[in-house]
Amino acid sequence: MQYLNPTDHDTYVQIARERGFTPRNIALPDGTRAFWLGAEDAKRVILFLHGGGYVMTADKNHWRFVWNLKKSLDQSGHDVAVLFLEYDIAPAAPYPRQLQQAAALLDHTVNVLGRRPSDIMIAGDSAGGNLVLAVLSHLSHPHREIAKVELAENLRGAVVISPWVDFDSRADSMTFNERKDMLTAKTLDRWAAAFMLGASTDPYNRPLTAPSEWWRGLKVNDVLIVAGADEIMVDDIRAFAKKFESVHPSTTTVIAPEEPHDSPLIFRMVGISKPGRQEQAVSSWMAQRI
């Protein structure tokens, strides 16, 4: 399937053609790219990390969701642009390659593009939500294999949509929501094996397993966690949110009734044009804080 899917660059060019803007990207020293949605001199920047189990490139509906999110923020009077990370995918690029790339993009945004951390938000869905949490972990507890990122102040905010917080697929919701969601526990197990490729698990890749104190003093102001009540990972996400909120009280958690995993993506994939509660929560939360 990986060989049949377009690259992130190819999908970006298609979206640019659909939306009528000129494609523009930045390249990091190791060749990693990130793509602009919006003006490069916008006051605020959202770093977006896409989902796909770490084994798939971004779906065109990721781009459409992020474009609509930026448009809604524009309409609210905000000057904002998005940098959409093109990270390498597993199993060719296993953990911790994606964390290395996401951390490097944040460092580049601050130290090369000259953006203040307080003007930056970081967001991601599913595996991208896992990656957002890994970046937050790295800022407070630098990963020994990845260059440290120094911030003079906190990031403005972080958003995780249906974050993949554990690779142990034994939570009750894995069973009682299996007929309501598009994901299955077996699929998650396969993706996790491809992503880890025999590496040891740790709080960076399995954030639910980190003790509460791990999350104290994070380099981020406000955090939003959203999920669907009908997704198979909802029990894990609820457990993570409870632990996270206990030491980072400026956290908002929204569990959307009767919604599956990652509804901003899934609804578009099945032709539902009206934004669900997860997407509404993200748009509203960002509009109030960005």
End-to-end Cα distance, whole Å, is: 37 Å
Taken in chain order, the helices and strands follow as: HEEEHEHEHEHHEHEHH
What's the pLDDT, averaged over the residues? 96
Strand line-up across the major sheet:
1-2-4-3-5-6-7-8
Query: Percent range for helical residues?
Result: 25-40%
How much of the sequence lies in strands comes to: 15-25%
Query: What structural category characterises the helix and strand content?
Result: alpha/beta
Main β-sheet, in a few words? 8 strands, mixed
Topology of this protein?
Elements: H1 8-19, E1 25-27, E2 33-37, E3 44-49, H2 60-75, E4 80-86, H3 97-111, E5 120-125, H4 127-140, E6 155-161, H5 173-176, H6 185-196, E7 220-228, H7 234-247, E8 251-256, H8 263-269, H9 277-289
Descriptive report:
The radius of gyration is 17 Å and the shape is globular. The protein is built from nine helices and eight strands. The model has no long low-confidence stretch (mean pLDDT 96). The protein has helices at residues 8-19, 60-75, 97-111, 127-140, 173-176, 185-196, 234-247, 263-269, 277-289, and strands at residues 25-27, 33-37, 44-49, 80-86, 120-125, 155-161, 220-228, 251-256. β7 (220-228), α7 and β8 (251-256) form a beta-alpha-beta unit. α3 (97-111) packs across α4. The protein has 290 residues and is of the alpha/beta class. An eight-stranded mixed sheet has the order 1-2-4-3-5-6-7-8, with helices on both faces. Helix content is 37%, strand content 17%.
